[in-house]
Amino acid sequence: QVNSKQGGSPCKEKHVVLLSPVGKIEISGCETGLHEIKLPKMSVLPSGAESSVACEVCEGAEEMPEPLRQCTAWLRAYFCEPATTGTLPLPAFHHPLLQRDSFTRQVLWTLLNDVKFGEAVSYKQLADLAGNSRAARAVGSAMRSNPIPIIIPCHRVIRSSGDTGHYGGGAPLKAWLLSHERQQKERMA
Question: How many separate domains does the chain show?
Fold first, then answer.
């Protein structure tokens, strides 16, 4: 249950499951906005056949509030027609972490707005962009607590060494997302 700001009454949370090229993505939210995107934990990367899976909502399609509809449309575009993501509205976010003013929120917003599709940034570079060059560790912590992965693209944050680093969905998923973006960006160029 997530309490809304006004009056603290709980949201009417809805859930949808999106079948994607990387497996089932669970999305939750309410009329106000998106609460969370849960990625499948992957130990191996999808190859050929699975990665060509169309994005379909396989659970919860009925009575989808607008933020969930926008989220599924955005994710479908991300996987299937990435060139169109820039023209789609981002869903509103309704997660407590993104409501209150904090360095974590600052880092997540900076990442969302400044690190574009097909780009990668180091933890230290993102700390610089967010206004605190000595906060690379705090950036790592912010990435771990990101409730809206893929849309807030924490997979684009890598180590200064070029190593991909950790990821909530597992290292293979992070590598797949980075590779997907690189390939799509080359096609769009």
Answer: 2
Dihedral over Cα of 52, 58, 61, 67: its sign:
negative
Tell me how far apart the alpha carbons of residues 156 and 122 are, in angstroms, rounded to a whole number. 8
* Domain residue limits at 178: 96-188
Residues involved in catalysis: 154
Tell me what percent of the residues of the chain surpass a pLDDT of 90. 61
Q: Taking a C-beta distance cutoff of 8 angstroms, is the pair 16, 36 a contact? A: no
Question: What span, in angstroms and rounded, lies between the C-alpha atoms of 159 and 98?
Answer: 24
Regarding whether 50 and 20 lie in a shared domain, the answer is yes
Residues 181, 70: Cα–Cα separation, whole Å: 21
- The DSSP secondary-structure symbol of 10 reads B
Alpha carbon separation from 161 to 108, 122, 158, 164, 179 (Å, rounded): 22, 9, 8, 9, 17
Q: What tens digit of pLDDT does each residue of 161-178 get?
A: 989 888 888 888 999 999
CATH number at residue 76: 3.30.160.70
Indicate if 42 and 75 belong to the same structural domain.
Answer: yes
The whole-model pTM stands at 0.88
